[in-house]
Amino acid sequence: MFKWIRKKILEGVIKDLLEQLPNIKEKGLQLLKEKKELIIEKIKEAIKKTLLELVEKF
Question: What is the pLDDT along the chain (58 residues), one digit of tens a residue?
Fold first, then answer.
């Protein structure tokens, strides 16, 4: 159940970010509908990489 909640939160964050980028909003939302799992996995990898870089930096 917690994985489902985390996934929904991440989807919400992605949608919020797309709303802030009007030039790619429509295309991004369509892509999210079509390839949601792939996008979520890529974002998880990017977050992990960024966190590792921050921890190593500090």
Answer: 688 898 889 889 888 888 888 888 888 889 888 999 999 899 999 999 999 999 998 8
- Cα 36 from chain centroid (whole Å): 9
Give, in degrees to the nearest 5, the angle at Cα 12 between 2 and 49.
Answer: 75
At residue 36, what are phi and psi to the nearest 5 degrees?
A: -55, -50
**Of 55, 54, 28, 56, nearest in space to 42 by CA:** 28
CA distance 49 to 36: 20
* Structure token digits, residue 58: 């500090």
pTM of whole model > 0.90? Answer: no
